Amino acid sequence: MTFRAAALRLYLVTDRGLAGDRPLGEIVLAAVAGGVTMVQIREKQATTRRFIEQARALKAALDGSGVPLIVNDRLDVALAVGADGVHLGDDDMSCAEARRLLGPRAIIGLSLAGPPGDGFAEADYVAASPVFATGTKPDAGPALGLAGVTALRRAVPRPLVAIGGIGRHNAAQVVAAGADGIAVVSAVMAADDPEAAARQLRAAMDGRP
Prior knowledge:
The chain has 209 residues and is an alpha/beta fold.
């Protein structure tokens, strides 16, 4: 799948803990109907087998939608299910190694919490993380703030998505600070109506009521 910065506009990161009894695929497809443009499956507690099962089911659900499926951290899972790419953190394998294993067409994202080194050269996009304090990732570092988003925008010649504590009330500010898009977890995953939540986020980003 050819990567375009527009895919970052509204980036959903899954969290089964927020899904309750609702099937993950049901929430994701509703969110896509509301305007989600990319999906990252994140499983911190599942076994490898369960992670693969969840990712494969989600990949099948998204096939034909044009919405890429990215796997958080686990390159082995991405390879097993034929995902569109992988998202890496500071403690994961290098982007160069991921590119070597996944090939030139894979989408590779990299989280940055400060000034970048040389490690982003093979990344298709970078994520400013976290922008604001967030409860969905307990191991997240200090908040970057809007100034941090702007600083990364100036420092990194890659499409930029921002994540961490972002919702309808501040989405437009984050985009104005330089992000090509926003990534959300609880703002959609915990919503009673994920489709409406996604639609409202897109409207907020675009300055529409």
